[in-house]
Amino acid sequence: MSLALPLGRPRHWSPVLPVLAVLVLLALPLSSSEGGGAGPADAASALVVGVCLVRLLRERARPLSARSALVLGLPVAGAALAAMGAASPGAGLAGLGRYLQVFVLVPAAVLLLIRDRRDFRLLAWALVGLALWQGAVGVKQYVTGTGASYQGRMIRAVGTFGPYDVMGMATVVAFGLLCAVGLALGKAPGRERAVAAGCALALLVPLALSFSRGAWIATAVTLTAQLLLAGVRRALKVGAVVVAAGVVLVGGLGVGTAMLQERIGSITKVADAPDQSVTDRYTMWAAATGMWREHPLTGVGLKGFPEYRDGHASLALSSGSDTEGAGVGFRREPLLSPHNMYLLVLAEQGLTGLLCLAGGWLAMLVLGLRGLRAAHRTGRGLDCALIGCGLLLWQLVDFVYADIGGPSTVLTAVCLGLVAWWALVGADPAAPDGGAR
Question: Of 68, 214, 318, 339, which one is least surrounded by beta carbons within 10 A?
Fold first, then answer.
């Protein structure tokens, strides 16, 4: 007897299938030449936008509402203004295209392709599946010593993304973990919630083995918020289970290696005894702040951070970051961004760009939380609410330690589409459910 997820039998082919193709391509290994930039999934994201446009024209479906167009279109103003101030037309167009892809076009296409909460849950389960695959690859890398280099040992779990995108697997696993927790805390049948809870516990292992402090912090904050938003009593019960699982993993199975414990301890020592990676990050943060002070309203222009970096960075900045392992030879990667999305936007787009970009995110967060209250009141769509709010909150926290770049960035665009659907469409109590829960 097979254990099937009770997602229901689709009435016909779902329009979100092109979005699933993006997730499938993110599961494939990348060649060394694709490690630092766009990959096949980015090409598939263009297909998602094209399919959405064709569907709108063929079916004469309604476009975005005025509110949705305003919220999703806010980043266009800041990015377009910064593109005009770029060092070269090519850099401006490339930067503008990337921002439109990640923050406007793909999220809007995903929003329009989702018909109801059934489609939303389908994509959520697909994210869980992708996270389990990438996590399994990462755990194997740690066990067999074939991962990326970490303190001279090839043990860092990076999945199929390789050493050039060490945050890729951590991001995928974190998104899958949040989706699994949201599904487990929803109103689905007991079997589905049990499967989701099991997936969430399993994903804790590869997340730990990613050695990504930023992903750990963002995930801890978001999981706590998800549990509290689901209800204090349920939060206490689930918290007890998580603590028990942590005791088993660390004490019984030996997951808590000395390196892992040292990495966790380093989170509280970044100000007292920072390692070189933290020093580089602080130095680049200071450089980004210096660029903003010189160009407060419009920034130095898109793709301008690398050009202005050396003129604003102190001598404490190293020449680059060492990358090695996971099937790739030693290579020194230049530090081309401040690893802080807010400071990157502030430096390159100024206060205008930051207000436009962050303003849309905050609007979606407020609308999503308002919809979560309605979900509690009506008893419909609680899982979607927890996933939508959780994905956005995770991204807002993680952007303090990371920015866009690399093949995994397209997943951020897909997740922002899920967030946008819940905040702008699904939060409405009258939104189509596609299933009785």
Answer: 318
Sign of the CA dihedral running 83, 87, 89, 94: negative
Contact residues for 395 (Cβ-Cβ < 8 A; gap 6+): 218, 361, 412, 415, 416, 419
Nearest of 293, 330, 318, 38 to residue 165 by alpha carbon: 38
Of the candidates 175, 65, 176, 75, the residue with the CA atom closest to the CA atom of residue 128: 176
Identify the three-state secondary structure at position 330.
strand
> Does the pLDDT at position 8 exceed 60?
no
Distant-in-sequence, close-in-space partners of 271: CB < 8 Å, separation ≥ 6 = none
d(CA 437, CA 433): 8
Asked if 278 and 327 touch (Cβ cutoff 8 Å), the reply is: no
Model pLDDT for residues 116-174, shown as the tens digit of each residue: 999 999 999 999 999 999 999 999 999 998 888 877 788 888 899 888 788 889 999 99
* Cα separations in angstroms, 356 against 71, 72, 289, 350: 9, 10, 18, 10
Give the tens place of pLDDT for each residue, 214-251. Answer: 899 999 999 999 999 988 777 677 667 666 766 665 55
Residue 397 tokens read as 């926290």
Report how far residue 399's alpha carbon sits from residue 194's, in angstroms, rounded to the nearest whole number: 31
Dist. CA 322–CA 343, nearest whole Å: 23
CA nearest neighbour of 122 among 412, 383, 406, 410:
383
Alpha carbons 125 and 349: distance in angstroms, whole number: 36
